[in-house]
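Morning F.,

Quick status update on the modeling queue. The single chain you submitted on Monday has been processed. Sequence for confirmation:
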Amino acid sequence: MDWYSLAKSLHIISVIAWMAGIFYLPRLFVYHADCEIGSDKSETFKVMERRLLKAIMNPAMIASWIFGLWAVVLLSAYHDFWFMLKFVLVLIMSGYHGLLSGHVKRFAADNNQKSSRYFRILNEVPTVLMVAIVFIVVFKPTI
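Structure tokens below.
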């Protein structure tokens, strides 16, 4: 059995699921921010946001970490410069995930203070991180 290929495949699948949620949740916030508090629309967005976070994003992030760390151990790359760079960027992406989770809680409590413009700008952060991570993993820079 090729354990590394299995770990890498499961890592890629879970990252795709995680990134889908990371891109979609702020887009929901863009529309939710413009809704009237207590409206049917606002309540629908609350359900969508909670389900996306709890059923897709959180499990996908956890799986991404587990399978990614498993792959790096099998590859013995944990001392490689490229891995250290990727690790830092994935920590930042995980922090971004936490920020989004906080926004879900604030929307659920009808306590959002941010504009739709803020969420449009916030939605660009994971794109920059993802592009950097992909280039690091593909080119594996060294020092």
